[in-house]
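Archive entry: two folds, one per protein. Generate the first.
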Amino acid sequence: MGDVQPWPSAGGRPDRPQGGGWQPAGQHPGYAAMRAAHTDRDRTVDVLKAAYAEGRLSADEYSARFDLANQAQTYGQLAQLVADLPSGPMPGPMSGPSAVPLGPPVPATFLPPTRQARNNGVAIASLVFGLLCVPSFGALGLPAVITGHMARQQIRRSEEGGDGMATFGLVVGYLSLAGWSLALFVAVLGALSHP
């Protein structure tokens, strides 16, 4: 992809890069013809910077692609600039070792941010019990510990989020129980030493 040419207009279609896997924009207008935003151009420049730093691009290639990235109007034009560069894993499942993807691979640069997993409800309860341990002088330590263990088991099975909340509830709950046990032990010792 050493001889990338500027596009004739905002609606111009980039040619297939040499050695790259990108299809001409006319075959996939839903993706390639979409208008690019400033953040899309910035992400493309980040991929180019990384490729230059790793020695995949010469200074001249980097400079030419950098200029074209700032002029690009569509996703197709931006994708052409990074089609022969690693920019993340290929999205979408492949049905076999020699399967051909149905469409062009979408560079990870242009993928929407991944959605975070939903937090486990029992983990949230453990966090709340843990936070309430302090004003209640540790009376909610046992519920915090129980819900913390339940949440961690559920999270392992369902791969939900909230492991940190469950851990917080467990730690504060155990500290609260230890404090209550120590206070009870001191009270019993005091009662036994003063008959």
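Generate the second and append.
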Amino acid sequence: MTRSSLPIAVPLAAVAALLLTACGAGASDTSDKIQPPPPPRTTTPPPPAAPTTAGAAVPDAPTFALPPDITVEFKGFDGTAENKAVLQDAVYAAKSVLELEARTRSKATSNFARFFTGERGAAYADALIGQGKDGGVITGTYRYYSSAVKPLQGGNLQVQYCEDQRKAYAKDSKTGKVGVTTPSASDFRLWTLLMSKSPSGEWHVYDHTWIKGAKQCEVA
């Protein structure tokens, strides 16, 4: 368990009201054998299709500088055609939190500032930066799962997902000492992100909250 020194986000007064309205081409044959010339063609054959790469990078996708002692796992964030984009940006938002917490910093990372916006985003960044200045960083494995998307007013969306921190720990950046804890029910969190779509089509978090020790997130 980690983030022990960070106060739990204040629940959103507006969330309940909002929810009432509605997470290469193959090698060529280089044989030395002489081949007969091909028969004449009356039409020009179409050019070969360009090879595709599985899991190709999303255009303008962010990269995250996570240290090697942090492992991140996401399961079930593929989504449908309608919510695929917002779930992808929710993944980026979650990673940006870990990236900011992983090292001592004097300001928010560009990724965090990109996906957490407004006053709530700025306040969250300040809290995480303050935690890092006191020597509190993170290490271990962070698992995310059970994502769900719900519509809100004005075209905004709510993304909820679970986080498992049973193998995640706080670390003292000054000494390198890891505060290993015994896994417990408090290691499961339910995150709620309220997200709006930017003019560029990217989804940003304008508000958020989490519940520590969420029963619905408990897994074996």
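Annotation attached to the second fold: The CA atoms of residues 196 and 204 lie 5 Å apart. Strands lie at 70-74, 136-151, 157-164, 168-172, 178-179, 188-197, 203-212.
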